[in-house]
Amino acid sequence: MNLGTAFSIGRGGIAQSDKKAVRWFKKAADQGNPEAQNLIGLMYKEGRFLPLNEEKAASCFKEAAEQGYAKAHFSMGNLCLDGRGLRLNKEEAACWFEKATEQGYAEAEYQLGCSYYLGRGVAKNYEEAAQWFRKAAEQGHKDAAFLMWHVLIHGDASPLSGEKAQDWLRKAADRGNLEAHFLGGNAYRVGHGDVKQSYEASALWTRKAAQKGHAEGQYALSLMFEKGVGVAQNDEEAMYWL
């Protein structure tokens, strides 16, 4: 496995070589290394460095999952969710994601939260969804922080009283979620939940979304400059962001 990694990135005096890296990863996988098995499975799944073969991908993931490797549990969940290489089975996908969460894998915590939020393979449960989104968000998952906000604003937030929705939206924005910047601007524009209405704050959040290429944010900022809402009226800026 270590030699495969060395060839994949070119380190320790070893010249980078994708072909040699794959060969060493396959050797490690054949010897039962679960990390290598999962990696080879991803290569087969994506058709990257190895021919696209979703059945072989599933086989590799299963071998790694049987050894308790969390990322392989997550990979199996994705295959069941997409119906690629395995039969489409949302209930089984949720079970695989839950297995991966037992080792604190943030991506699995996020996906299990989505399953509860959407009623995807499990009974819809906003409180349970929020618990898993919180766990993932606490590990730095930007989309989990955003959906934590979404649950508090749009879901059944009664068992979550005391949570400040805007705090989660701010965390998502700070971690680079563009939609969080844009929706934060909307929240300040109308005053939503625990957010006090402020056109100036709305303009600041909207500008952040616009500067990062969010199309709706750019259009909204253009209107703000055109009408002088939260910013000084400026036709040039309005045209620039249109």
Topology:
Elements: H1 2-9, H2 18-30, H3 34-46, H4 54-65, H5 70-82, H6 90-101, H7 106-118, H8 126-137, H9 142-154, H10 165-174, H11 178-190, H12 199-211, H13 215-227, H14 235-241
Helix pairs in contact: 1-2, 2-3, 3-4, 4-5, 5-6, 6-7, 7-8, 7-9, 8-9, 9-10, 10-11, 11-12, 12-13, 13-14
Major β-sheet annotation: none
Write the H/E string, N to C: HHHHHHHHHHHHHH
Task: Report strand %.
Answer: under 5%
Question: Helicity range of the residues?
Answer: 55-70%
Average of per-residue pLDDT values: 89
Would you state the CATH class of the domain at 177-242? Mainly Alpha
Q: Which key phrases capture this entry?
A:
Serine Threonine Protein Phosphatase 5, Tetratricopeptide repeat, 14 helices, mainly alpha, 242 residues
Task: Give a written overview of the molecule.
With 242 residues, this protein is mainly α. The chain has a domain at 177-242: Tetratricopeptide repeat domain (Serine Threonine Protein Phosphatase 5, Tetratricopeptide repeat). It has helices at 2-9, 18-30, 34-46, 54-65, 70-82, 90-101, 106-118, 126-137, 142-154, 165-174, 178-190, 199-211, 215-227, 235-241. The chain is globular.
